Automatic annotation (TrEMBL):
This is histidine kinase. One of its GO terms (cellular component) is plasma membrane. It comes from the Bacteria. It holds the Pfam family HATPase_c. It is an enzyme of class 2 (transferase). It is found in: Cell membrane. SUPFAM superfamilies: ATPase domain of HSP90 chaperone/DNA topoisomerase II/histidine kinase, Homodimeric domain of signal transducing histidine kinase. It comes from Streptomyces griseoviridis. Residues 283-493 form the Histidine kinase domain. The keyword Zinc does not apply. Residues 222-275 form the HAMP domain. InterPro entries: HAMP_dom (IPR003660), HATPase_C_sf (IPR036890), HATPase_dom (IPR003594), His_kinase_dom (IPR005467), HisK_dim/P_dom (IPR003661), HisK_dim/P_sf (IPR036097), Sig_transdc_His_kin-like_C (IPR004358), TCS_sensor_his_kinase (IPR050428).
Protein backbone atom coordinates (compact mmCIF):
# COMPACT_ATOMS: atom_id res chain seq x y z
CA UNK A 1 0.00 0.00 0.00
CA UNK A 2 1.37 3.41 -0.98
CA UNK A 3 1.80 6.31 1.44
CA UNK A 4 -0.98 8.25 -0.32
CA UNK A 5 -3.42 5.38 0.15
CA UNK A 6 -2.47 5.07 3.83
CA UNK A 7 -3.09 8.80 4.37
CA UNK A 8 -6.39 8.63 2.55
CA UNK A 9 -7.54 5.70 4.65
CA UNK A 10 -6.82 7.60 7.85
CA UNK A 11 -9.49 10.21 7.13
CA UNK A 12 -11.75 8.41 4.65
CA UNK A 13 -14.56 6.69 6.58
CA UNK A 14 -14.80 2.91 6.33
CA UNK A 15 -18.50 2.69 7.15
CA UNK A 16 -20.87 2.62 4.19
CA UNK A 17 -23.29 4.77 6.18
CA UNK A 18 -20.63 7.41 6.79
CA UNK A 19 -19.48 7.28 3.18
CA UNK A 20 -23.05 7.67 1.92
CA UNK A 21 -23.63 10.59 4.29
CA UNK A 22 -20.35 12.22 3.22
CA UNK A 23 -21.22 11.75 -0.45
CA UNK A 24 -24.71 13.21 0.09
CA UNK A 25 -23.30 16.20 1.98
CA UNK A 26 -20.64 16.78 -0.69
CA UNK A 27 -23.19 16.65 -3.50
CA UNK A 28 -25.60 18.89 -1.58
CA UNK A 29 -22.79 21.34 -0.80
CA UNK A 30 -21.91 21.59 -4.48
CA UNK A 31 -25.56 22.15 -5.43
CA UNK A 32 -26.13 24.69 -2.65
CA UNK A 33 -22.94 26.54 -3.56
CA UNK A 34 -24.15 26.86 -7.15
CA UNK A 35 -27.58 28.01 -6.02
CA UNK A 36 -26.02 30.47 -3.54
CA UNK A 37 -23.79 31.94 -6.23
CA UNK A 38 -26.79 32.43 -8.52
CA UNK A 39 -28.94 33.92 -5.73
CA UNK A 40 -26.08 36.26 -4.71
CA UNK A 41 -25.71 37.67 -8.20
CA UNK A 42 -29.46 37.82 -8.83
CA UNK A 43 -30.14 39.65 -5.55
CA UNK A 44 -27.32 42.11 -6.27
CA UNK A 45 -28.60 42.70 -9.79
CA UNK A 46 -32.17 43.25 -8.65
CA UNK A 47 -31.06 45.51 -5.78
CA UNK A 48 -28.92 47.54 -8.14
CA UNK A 49 -31.85 47.85 -10.50
CA UNK A 50 -34.06 49.10 -7.66
CA UNK A 51 -31.40 51.62 -6.63
CA UNK A 52 -31.14 52.85 -10.22
CA UNK A 53 -34.91 53.17 -10.45
CA UNK A 54 -34.95 55.17 -7.22
CA UNK A 55 -32.20 57.44 -8.54
CA UNK A 56 -34.12 57.88 -11.81
CA UNK A 57 -37.27 58.96 -9.97
CA UNK A 58 -35.26 61.47 -8.00
CA UNK A 59 -33.73 62.75 -11.23
CA UNK A 60 -37.18 63.24 -12.78
CA UNK A 61 -38.40 65.07 -9.69
CA UNK A 62 -35.36 67.38 -9.68
CA UNK A 63 -35.71 68.17 -13.38
CA UNK A 64 -39.39 68.97 -12.90
CA UNK A 65 -38.63 71.29 -9.96
CA UNK A 66 -35.93 73.13 -11.91
CA UNK A 67 -38.20 73.59 -14.89
CA UNK A 68 -40.74 75.15 -12.52
CA UNK A 69 -38.06 77.58 -11.32
CA UNK A 70 -37.78 76.03 -7.86
CA UNK A 71 -34.49 75.34 -6.17
CA UNK A 72 -34.55 71.71 -4.83
CA UNK A 73 -34.24 71.15 -1.13
CA UNK A 74 -31.03 69.97 0.38
CA UNK A 75 -32.89 67.18 2.11
CA UNK A 76 -32.83 64.19 -0.28
CA UNK A 77 -32.64 60.39 0.00
CA UNK A 78 -29.94 60.26 -2.67
CA UNK A 79 -26.98 62.57 -3.28
CA UNK A 80 -27.50 65.09 -6.08
CA UNK A 81 -25.95 68.23 -7.47
CA UNK A 82 -27.12 70.83 -10.01
CA UNK A 83 -24.41 72.76 -11.86
CA UNK A 84 -24.70 75.35 -14.61
CA UNK A 85 -22.52 77.09 -17.20
CA UNK A 86 -21.41 80.56 -16.25
CA UNK A 87 -21.78 79.78 -12.56
CA UNK A 88 -18.88 79.00 -10.24
CA UNK A 89 -20.93 77.44 -7.46
CA UNK A 90 -23.51 74.68 -7.57
CA UNK A 91 -27.11 75.72 -8.20
CA UNK A 92 -28.25 73.17 -5.63
CA UNK A 93 -26.86 70.12 -3.83
CA UNK A 94 -28.20 67.69 -1.29
CA UNK A 95 -28.19 64.18 0.07
CA UNK A 96 -24.61 64.59 1.29
CA UNK A 97 -23.09 66.16 -1.80
CA UNK A 98 -23.06 69.58 -0.13
CA UNK A 99 -20.76 68.19 2.58
CA UNK A 100 -18.17 66.69 0.26
CA UNK A 101 -16.24 69.93 -0.03
CA UNK A 102 -17.43 72.90 2.00
CA UNK A 103 -16.72 76.16 0.18
CA UNK A 104 -16.00 74.43 -3.11
CA UNK A 105 -17.34 75.88 -6.30
CA UNK A 106 -19.00 72.63 -7.32
CA UNK A 107 -18.14 68.92 -7.16
CA UNK A 108 -19.11 67.49 -10.52
CA UNK A 109 -18.13 68.99 -13.89
CA UNK A 110 -20.22 71.65 -15.67
CA UNK A 111 -21.94 70.77 -18.95
CA UNK A 112 -21.21 72.18 -22.38
CA UNK A 113 -23.17 75.22 -23.41
CA UNK A 114 -26.35 74.55 -25.39
CA UNK A 115 -28.24 76.85 -27.74
CA UNK A 116 -31.37 74.70 -28.06
CA UNK A 117 -33.24 72.03 -26.07
CA UNK A 118 -30.98 68.93 -25.79
CA UNK A 119 -33.39 66.42 -27.34
CA UNK A 120 -35.42 68.60 -29.63
CA UNK A 121 -38.72 67.59 -28.09
CA UNK A 122 -38.08 63.82 -28.16
CA UNK A 123 -39.19 61.57 -25.31
CA UNK A 124 -37.32 62.30 -22.11
CA UNK A 125 -34.26 60.19 -21.32
CA UNK A 126 -31.19 60.39 -19.17
CA UNK A 127 -27.54 59.35 -19.26
CA UNK A 128 -25.76 57.12 -16.77
CA UNK A 129 -22.02 56.66 -16.42
CA UNK A 130 -19.49 56.07 -13.65
CA UNK A 131 -17.96 59.23 -12.20
CA UNK A 132 -15.40 59.73 -9.47
CA UNK A 133 -16.39 62.15 -6.74
CA UNK A 134 -13.29 64.34 -6.26
CA UNK A 135 -11.95 65.05 -2.79
CA UNK A 136 -11.20 68.64 -1.95
CA UNK A 137 -8.23 69.71 0.09
CA UNK A 138 -10.36 71.08 2.91
CA UNK A 139 -12.69 68.11 2.99
CA UNK A 140 -13.26 66.45 6.36
CA UNK A 141 -13.59 62.63 5.77
CA UNK A 142 -15.69 62.38 8.92
CA UNK A 143 -18.38 64.64 7.51
CA UNK A 144 -20.97 63.94 4.87
CA UNK A 145 -21.80 60.56 3.38
CA UNK A 146 -18.21 59.64 2.70
CA UNK A 147 -18.65 60.07 -1.04
CA UNK A 148 -15.34 61.86 -1.77
CA UNK A 149 -12.66 59.87 -3.51
CA UNK A 150 -14.96 57.07 -4.68
CA UNK A 151 -16.52 56.20 -8.03
CA UNK A 152 -20.28 55.75 -8.39
CA UNK A 153 -22.78 55.31 -11.20
CA UNK A 154 -24.18 58.78 -11.83
CA UNK A 155 -27.42 59.65 -13.67
CA UNK A 156 -27.62 63.12 -15.24
CA UNK A 157 -29.77 65.20 -17.55
CA UNK A 158 -29.30 68.64 -19.13
CA UNK A 159 -31.73 71.53 -19.13
CA UNK A 160 -31.41 74.61 -21.45
CA UNK A 161 -32.36 77.71 -19.56
CA UNK A 162 -33.70 79.17 -22.80
CA UNK A 163 -36.74 76.96 -22.29
CA UNK A 164 -37.46 78.74 -19.03
CA UNK A 165 -38.96 82.18 -18.53
CA UNK A 166 -36.72 84.97 -17.35
CA UNK A 167 -38.26 84.83 -13.90
CA UNK A 168 -37.60 81.12 -13.47
CA UNK A 169 -33.96 81.47 -14.64
CA UNK A 170 -33.49 84.36 -12.25
CA UNK A 171 -35.02 82.33 -9.43
CA UNK A 172 -32.46 79.62 -10.09
CA UNK A 173 -29.66 82.16 -10.25
CA UNK A 174 -28.56 81.41 -13.84
CA UNK A 175 -28.48 83.43 -17.05
CA UNK A 176 -31.14 82.96 -19.70
CA UNK A 177 -28.71 81.24 -22.10
CA UNK A 178 -27.14 78.95 -19.44
CA UNK A 179 -27.18 75.17 -19.47
CA UNK A 180 -28.00 73.28 -16.29
CA UNK A 181 -26.99 69.73 -15.58
CA UNK A 182 -28.69 67.68 -12.87
CA UNK A 183 -26.56 64.93 -11.32
CA UNK A 184 -28.02 62.12 -9.18
CA UNK A 185 -25.59 59.65 -7.58
CA UNK A 186 -26.72 56.03 -7.44
CA UNK A 187 -25.51 54.60 -4.13
CA UNK A 188 -24.69 50.86 -4.09
CA UNK A 189 -24.88 50.70 -0.31
CA UNK A 190 -28.42 49.37 -0.24
CA UNK A 191 -27.69 46.69 -2.84
CA UNK A 192 -24.56 45.64 -1.02
CA UNK A 193 -26.33 45.54 2.33
CA UNK A 194 -29.21 43.47 0.96
CA UNK A 195 -26.78 41.13 -0.77
CA UNK A 196 -24.66 40.72 2.37
CA UNK A 197 -27.75 39.96 4.45
CA UNK A 198 -28.92 37.45 1.89
CA UNK A 199 -25.46 35.82 1.85
CA UNK A 200 -25.50 35.41 5.61
CA UNK A 201 -28.96 33.88 5.55
CA UNK A 202 -27.96 31.52 2.75
CA UNK A 203 -24.80 30.49 4.58
CA UNK A 204 -26.65 29.73 7.82
CA UNK A 205 -29.48 27.88 6.12
CA UNK A 206 -27.01 26.00 3.93
CA UNK A 207 -24.99 24.81 6.92
CA UNK A 208 -28.15 23.69 8.72
CA UNK A 209 -29.37 22.01 5.55
CA UNK A 210 -26.08 20.14 5.09
CA UNK A 211 -26.22 18.86 8.66
CA UNK A 212 -29.80 17.69 8.15
CA UNK A 213 -28.98 16.09 4.79
CA UNK A 214 -26.00 14.24 6.29
CA UNK A 215 -28.07 13.00 9.23
CA UNK A 216 -30.96 11.89 7.03
CA UNK A 217 -28.61 10.12 4.59
CA UNK A 218 -26.76 8.40 7.44
CA UNK A 219 -29.88 7.05 9.15
CA UNK A 220 -31.58 6.21 5.85
CA UNK A 221 -28.64 4.08 4.75
CA UNK A 222 -28.48 2.57 8.22
CA UNK A 223 -32.11 1.47 8.00
CA UNK A 224 -31.65 0.27 4.41
CA UNK A 225 -28.64 -1.85 5.39
CA UNK A 226 -30.37 -3.66 8.22
CA UNK A 227 -31.40 -6.56 5.92
CA UNK A 228 -27.80 -6.74 4.69
CA UNK A 229 -26.56 -7.03 8.28
CA UNK A 230 -29.10 -9.80 8.90
CA UNK A 231 -27.86 -11.57 5.77
CA UNK A 232 -24.26 -11.20 6.93
CA UNK A 233 -25.00 -12.65 10.37
CA UNK A 234 -26.83 -15.61 8.86
CA UNK A 235 -24.28 -16.38 6.18
CA UNK A 236 -21.49 -16.25 8.76
CA UNK A 237 -22.80 -19.57 10.09
CA UNK A 238 -22.77 -21.24 6.67
CA UNK A 239 -19.97 -23.74 6.08
CA UNK A 240 -19.09 -25.85 3.10
CA UNK A 241 -19.98 -29.00 5.03
CA UNK A 242 -23.40 -27.69 6.05
CA UNK A 243 -24.67 -25.03 3.63
CA UNK A 244 -28.33 -25.55 4.46
CA UNK A 245 -28.99 -22.10 5.90
CA UNK A 246 -31.09 -19.71 3.81
CA UNK A 247 -31.54 -15.98 4.23
CA UNK A 248 -34.91 -14.29 4.53
CA UNK A 249 -35.93 -12.58 1.30
CA UNK A 250 -37.48 -9.12 2.00
CA UNK A 251 -40.86 -8.50 0.39
CA UNK A 252 -39.98 -4.94 -0.60
CA UNK A 253 -38.77 -5.82 -4.09
CA UNK A 254 -35.67 -3.57 -4.00
CA UNK A 255 -32.00 -4.42 -4.53
CA UNK A 256 -31.75 -6.19 -1.16
CA UNK A 257 -34.37 -8.65 -2.38
CA UNK A 258 -32.27 -9.41 -5.45
CA UNK A 259 -29.20 -9.82 -3.22
CA UNK A 260 -31.00 -12.22 -0.90
CA UNK A 261 -32.37 -14.24 -3.83
CA UNK A 262 -28.95 -14.45 -5.46
CA UNK A 263 -27.35 -15.46 -2.17
CA UNK A 264 -29.95 -18.18 -1.62
CA UNK A 265 -29.33 -19.47 -5.14
CA UNK A 266 -25.59 -19.48 -4.42
CA UNK A 267 -26.12 -21.35 -1.16
CA UNK A 268 -28.35 -23.83 -3.00
CA UNK A 269 -25.62 -24.44 -5.58
CA UNK A 270 -23.09 -24.79 -2.78
CA UNK A 271 -25.38 -27.29 -1.06
CA UNK A 272 -25.76 -29.28 -4.26
CA UNK A 273 -22.01 -29.13 -4.90
CA UNK A 274 -21.27 -30.32 -1.36
CA UNK A 275 -23.82 -33.14 -1.66
CA UNK A 276 -22.40 -34.09 -5.03
CA UNK A 277 -18.89 -34.08 -3.64
CA UNK A 278 -19.90 -36.25 -0.69
CA UNK A 279 -21.69 -38.66 -3.00
CA UNK A 280 -18.74 -38.74 -5.36
CA UNK A 281 -16.29 -39.45 -2.54
CA UNK A 282 -18.55 -42.20 -1.20
CA UNK A 283 -18.98 -43.76 -4.65
CA UNK A 284 -15.27 -43.51 -5.38
CA UNK A 285 -14.45 -45.18 -2.06
CA UNK A 286 -16.97 -47.93 -2.81
CA UNK A 287 -15.59 -48.50 -6.30
CA UNK A 288 -12.02 -48.59 -5.03
CA UNK A 289 -12.92 -50.92 -2.15
CA UNK A 290 -14.40 -53.59 -4.44
CA UNK A 291 -11.22 -54.40 -6.45
CA UNK A 292 -9.05 -53.89 -3.38
CA UNK A 293 -11.17 -56.36 -1.43
CA UNK A 294 -10.99 -58.91 -4.25
CA UNK A 295 -7.24 -58.40 -4.60
CA UNK A 296 -6.58 -58.60 -0.85
CA UNK A 297 -8.81 -61.68 -0.37
CA UNK A 298 -7.08 -63.62 -3.17
CA UNK A 299 -3.61 -62.76 -1.88
CA UNK A 300 -4.48 -63.60 1.74
CA UNK A 301 -5.92 -67.00 0.75
CA UNK A 302 -2.85 -67.77 -1.36
CA UNK A 303 -0.54 -66.74 1.47
CA UNK A 304 -2.52 -68.77 4.01
CA UNK A 305 -2.26 -71.95 1.93
CA UNK A 306 0.83 -71.50 -0.22
CA UNK A 307 1.18 -75.20 -1.02
CA UNK A 308 -2.36 -75.51 -2.35
CA UNK A 309 -2.64 -72.06 -3.99
CA UNK A 310 -2.91 -71.69 -7.77
CA UNK A 311 -0.31 -68.96 -8.07
CA UNK A 312 -0.74 -68.32 -11.85
CA UNK A 313 -4.50 -67.83 -11.35
CA UNK A 314 -3.88 -65.65 -8.28
CA UNK A 315 -1.42 -63.48 -10.22
CA UNK A 316 -3.86 -63.20 -13.12
CA UNK A 317 -6.67 -62.06 -10.79
CA UNK A 318 -4.35 -59.62 -9.06
CA UNK A 319 -3.25 -58.17 -12.39
CA UNK A 320 -6.86 -57.82 -13.56
CA UNK A 321 -7.90 -56.03 -10.37
CA UNK A 322 -4.81 -53.83 -10.53
CA UNK A 323 -5.67 -52.81 -14.11
CA UNK A 324 -9.17 -52.01 -12.93
CA UNK A 325 -7.77 -49.88 -10.11
CA UNK A 326 -5.49 -48.14 -12.58
CA UNK A 327 -8.36 -47.39 -14.98
CA UNK A 328 -10.53 -46.12 -12.12
CA UNK A 329 -7.72 -43.91 -10.80
CA UNK A 330 -7.08 -42.42 -14.24
CA UNK A 331 -10.78 -41.67 -14.65
CA UNK A 332 -10.94 -40.02 -11.24
CA UNK A 333 -7.89 -37.87 -12.03
CA UNK A 334 -9.40 -36.85 -15.36
CA UNK A 335 -12.68 -35.88 -13.70
CA UNK A 336 -10.78 -33.85 -11.10
CA UNK A 337 -9.01 -31.94 -13.90
CA UNK A 338 -12.30 -31.35 -15.70
CA UNK A 339 -13.95 -30.10 -12.49
CA UNK A 340 -11.24 -27.47 -12.00
CA UNK A 341 -12.32 -25.84 -15.28
CA UNK A 342 -8.69 -25.24 -16.16
CA UNK A 343 -8.20 -23.41 -19.46
CA UNK A 344 -7.77 -25.80 -22.35
CA UNK A 345 -4.69 -25.86 -24.51
CA UNK A 346 -4.61 -23.96 -27.80
CA UNK A 347 -7.35 -25.62 -29.88
CA UNK A 348 -6.41 -27.33 -33.08
CA UNK A 349 -8.46 -28.52 -36.03
CA UNK A 350 -9.46 -32.19 -35.74
CA UNK A 351 -11.06 -34.30 -38.46
CA UNK A 352 -13.70 -36.22 -36.49
CA UNK A 353 -14.35 -38.53 -39.45
CA UNK A 354 -10.72 -39.64 -39.64
CA UNK A 355 -10.51 -40.02 -35.86
CA UNK A 356 -13.64 -42.21 -35.72
CA UNK A 357 -12.37 -44.40 -38.59
CA UNK A 358 -9.02 -44.84 -36.88
CA UNK A 359 -10.59 -45.79 -33.55
CA UNK A 360 -12.92 -48.25 -35.26
CA UNK A 361 -9.93 -49.96 -36.90
CA UNK A 362 -7.84 -50.05 -33.72
CA UNK A 363 -10.52 -50.97 -31.17
CA UNK A 364 -9.98 -54.30 -29.41
CA UNK A 365 -13.29 -56.17 -29.48
CA UNK A 366 -14.46 -58.34 -26.63
CA UNK A 367 -14.07 -62.10 -26.74
CA UNK A 368 -17.42 -62.54 -28.49
CA UNK A 369 -18.76 -62.03 -32.04
CA UNK A 370 -19.17 -58.26 -32.55
CA UNK A 371 -19.12 -56.05 -35.63
CA UNK A 372 -17.84 -52.46 -35.45
CA UNK A 373 -18.77 -50.29 -38.45
CA UNK A 374 -17.86 -46.64 -39.14
CA UNK A 375 -19.92 -44.76 -41.74
CA UNK A 376 -18.94 -41.32 -43.00
CA UNK A 377 -19.38 -39.24 -46.13
CA UNK A 378 -16.89 -36.38 -45.89
CA UNK A 379 -14.32 -34.87 -43.53
CA UNK A 380 -15.91 -33.27 -40.45
CA UNK A 381 -13.67 -30.64 -38.83
CA UNK A 382 -14.00 -29.43 -35.24
CA UNK A 383 -11.83 -27.31 -32.96
CA UNK A 384 -10.32 -28.73 -29.80
CA UNK A 385 -7.80 -31.04 -28.20
CA UNK A 386 -7.23 -34.22 -30.30
CA UNK A 387 -6.46 -36.31 -27.17
CA UNK A 388 -9.70 -35.16 -25.52
CA UNK A 389 -11.73 -36.06 -28.63
CA UNK A 390 -10.04 -39.46 -28.77
CA UNK A 391 -10.90 -40.10 -25.12
CA UNK A 392 -14.50 -39.01 -25.70
CA UNK A 393 -15.01 -41.29 -28.72
CA UNK A 394 -13.22 -44.19 -27.07
CA UNK A 395 -15.51 -43.98 -24.03
CA UNK A 396 -18.60 -44.00 -26.26
CA UNK A 397 -17.32 -46.96 -28.31
CA UNK A 398 -16.32 -48.89 -25.17
CA UNK A 399 -19.75 -48.32 -23.64
CA UNK A 400 -21.51 -49.44 -26.85
CA UNK A 401 -19.27 -52.51 -27.19
CA UNK A 402 -20.07 -53.65 -23.64
CA UNK A 403 -23.84 -53.48 -24.25
CA UNK A 404 -24.12 -54.47 -27.96
CA UNK A 405 -25.45 -57.85 -28.92
CA UNK A 406 -23.88 -58.13 -32.37
CA UNK A 407 -23.19 -54.71 -33.94
CA UNK A 408 -21.90 -51.20 -33.15
CA UNK A 409 -22.27 -48.47 -35.75
CA UNK A 410 -20.48 -45.09 -35.78
CA UNK A 411 -21.84 -42.37 -38.07
CA UNK A 412 -20.34 -38.91 -38.73
CA UNK A 413 -22.31 -36.21 -40.61
CA UNK A 414 -22.00 -32.46 -41.34
CA UNK A 415 -25.30 -30.71 -40.57
CA UNK A 416 -25.23 -26.95 -41.25
CA UNK A 417 -22.99 -25.38 -38.58
CA UNK A 418 -22.67 -28.61 -36.59
CA UNK A 419 -20.86 -31.91 -36.78
CA UNK A 420 -23.06 -34.77 -35.54
CA UNK A 421 -21.52 -38.09 -34.49
CA UNK A 422 -23.71 -41.00 -33.37
CA UNK A 423 -22.70 -44.30 -31.76
CA UNK A 424 -25.49 -46.90 -32.02
CA UNK A 425 -25.53 -50.40 -30.57
CA UNK A 426 -28.11 -53.19 -30.83
CA UNK A 427 -28.14 -53.97 -27.12
CA UNK A 428 -31.02 -53.83 -24.63
CA UNK A 429 -31.21 -50.02 -24.75
CA UNK A 430 -31.89 -47.54 -21.95
CA UNK A 431 -35.31 -46.83 -20.38
CA UNK A 432 -36.54 -43.27 -21.16
CA UNK A 433 -36.66 -42.35 -17.47
CA UNK A 434 -32.92 -43.11 -17.18
CA UNK A 435 -31.87 -41.11 -20.26
CA UNK A 436 -30.15 -38.47 -18.11
CA UNK A 437 -29.19 -40.56 -15.11
CA UNK A 438 -26.77 -42.68 -17.12
CA UNK A 439 -24.52 -39.61 -17.47
CA UNK A 440 -24.09 -39.35 -13.71
CA UNK A 441 -20.94 -40.67 -12.12
CA UNK A 442 -20.78 -44.30 -10.97
CA UNK A 443 -24.21 -45.12 -12.42
CA UNK A 444 -24.86 -48.63 -13.77
CA UNK A 445 -28.34 -49.51 -14.83
CA UNK A 446 -27.86 -53.25 -15.19
CA UNK A 447 -26.89 -54.61 -11.78
CA UNK A 448 -26.55 -58.11 -13.25
CA UNK A 449 -23.46 -57.09 -15.24
CA UNK A 450 -20.13 -58.11 -13.86
CA UNK A 451 -17.96 -55.37 -12.45
CA UNK A 452 -15.12 -56.23 -14.82
CA UNK A 453 -17.28 -55.95 -17.91
CA UNK A 454 -19.34 -53.05 -16.68
CA UNK A 455 -16.42 -50.62 -16.53
CA UNK A 456 -15.84 -47.95 -13.89
CA UNK A 457 -19.15 -46.17 -14.29
CA UNK A 458 -17.37 -42.93 -15.22
CA UNK A 459 -17.04 -43.23 -18.99
CA UNK A 460 -20.25 -41.47 -19.99
CA UNK A 461 -19.79 -38.78 -17.33
CA UNK A 462 -16.32 -38.04 -18.68
CA UNK A 463 -17.61 -38.05 -22.26
CA UNK A 464 -20.32 -35.47 -21.47
CA UNK A 465 -17.88 -33.23 -19.57
CA UNK A 466 -15.49 -33.33 -22.52
CA UNK A 467 -18.34 -32.48 -24.92
CA UNK A 468 -19.37 -29.48 -22.80
CA UNK A 469 -15.75 -28.39 -22.56
CA UNK A 470 -15.70 -28.15 -26.37
CA UNK A 471 -19.02 -26.22 -26.51
CA UNK A 472 -20.93 -29.28 -27.63
CA UNK A 473 -23.65 -31.60 -26.31
CA UNK A 474 -23.93 -35.33 -25.68
CA UNK A 475 -27.40 -36.82 -25.39
CA UNK A 476 -29.16 -40.16 -25.68
CA UNK A 477 -31.27 -40.25 -28.84
CA UNK A 478 -34.55 -42.23 -28.66
CA UNK A 479 -34.37 -45.58 -30.47
CA UNK A 480 -36.63 -48.62 -30.58
CA UNK A 481 -33.62 -50.93 -30.65
CA UNK A 482 -30.48 -50.49 -28.63
CA UNK A 483 -28.96 -47.22 -27.44
CA UNK A 484 -27.86 -44.33 -29.64
CA UNK A 485 -25.61 -41.58 -28.26
CA UNK A 486 -25.59 -38.33 -30.28
CA UNK A 487 -22.60 -35.94 -30.05
CA UNK A 488 -23.07 -32.40 -31.50
CA UNK A 489 -20.05 -30.13 -31.88
CA UNK A 490 -19.59 -26.72 -33.57
CA UNK A 491 -18.29 -27.14 -37.08
CA UNK A 492 -14.89 -25.63 -37.89
CA UNK A 493 -13.56 -24.47 -41.26
CA UNK A 494 -11.27 -26.84 -43.10
CA UNK A 495 -7.57 -26.22 -42.41
CA UNK A 496 -5.52 -24.71 -45.23
CA UNK A 497 -3.89 -27.24 -47.51
CA UNK A 498 -0.26 -27.91 -46.68
Amino acid sequence: MSATERRRRRWWPRSVRARAALAAVSAAAAVLAGIGWWVHHEVYRQSTHIAEEQARKNLVALVDQLKEGSVPSRRSAVPYEVVATGRRTAVAAGGGMEDVGPGARHVLPRPSALSAPPRGGAEWSYTIRPLRIPARGDHDPRSGAGLAGRTYPVLYDDIWAGELSGGKAAALGVRAEATLRVYVVQLPDTAEAVTATTDRLLLRSGLVGLVLIGAVAYFTVRVALRPVEAIRVLTASVTANDPRERVTVPATGHEITALATTLNNTLQRLDHAAARQRRFVADAAHELRSPLTTLLAGLEVALAYPDRADWPATATTAARQTRRLQALTEDLLLLARLDTRAPAADPGTVDLTALAARLAGQHTLLDRPLTLVCENTAPAYVLGDPDAYERLLRNLVDNAARHAAHRVQITVRNQDAWVVLTVHDDGPGVPPEDAERIFERFVRLDDARSRDRGGTGLGLAIARDLAHRHRGTLTLAPRTLGACFRLRLPRAPAPPAE
